[in-house]
Amino acid sequence: MTPTITAFEKSPDRGRGLARDMRVRWALEEVGLPYDVRLVSFQEMKQPAHLALHPFGQIPTYQEGELALFESGAILLHVAERHAGLLPEDADARARAIAWMFAALSTMEPPIVEFGMSRLFEREKPWFEQRQPMLEDRVRTRLGQLSARLGDADWLDGAFSAGDLLMVTVLRRLDGSGLVEEFPNLAAYVARGEARPAYRRAFDAQLAVFQTGQGNSRR
Ligand SMILES: N[C@@H](CCC(=O)N[C@@H](CS)C(=O)NCC(=O)O)C(=O)O
Hints:
Blueprint lengths: L3 E5 L12 H11 L3 E6 L1 H4 L2 H6 L7 E4 L2 E4 L1 H11 L8 H31 L6 H23 L11 H11 L11 H11 L2 H16 L4 E2 L1
Helix pairs in contact: 1-4, 1-7, 1-9, 5-6, 5-7, 7-8
The structure holds glutathione.
């Protein structure tokens, strides 16, 4: 059964691949699973029909037959557990890759989102300049720790996994801040992710939505 995901009808990132449907698209491309996309407006996301799918009125969602999922991490885990290519076969290596998925979403993403939100929405606040260095340092600390662990490896734990996929999408949220570039191995890591053919296909598909305003199917 072909899954259907939801994405922004008009992505605020103007097609830069920062919205969270990008990580789901990339995962589906990595495992070679065709998918349909249903575009939703900000208004639609807050209506009962969408809230039944996503209690917080957000994207992405994932529907496959009777199954409806929300939360990009849960969607990725579902896809990765059912299709080869995103999680190792070995049970211990698989558990470690899943740990990296959680690390991306619950250790790296929160300070990065906080930093990004502040730059987007709090510039006019009288305390913006004062608060910014603290937010930046929180991100820098996590980047430094991640950089130390990655060292000169290509991926976080052996072969490319769903953990790397999520981590790269999370680090991309820092685009334009110069922070990732302070850690050349992390900048190279992100570039390695972006160079994957599956990433390119996913990126082009979400960009096409922004450019044409049309939903798309990847079959
Ligand atoms: N933890 C959720 C976050 C979902 C999320 O923040 N989605 C954003 C787009 S990237 C959204 O729908 N924002 C619109 C809103 O919250 O109204 C996930 O990973 O799926």
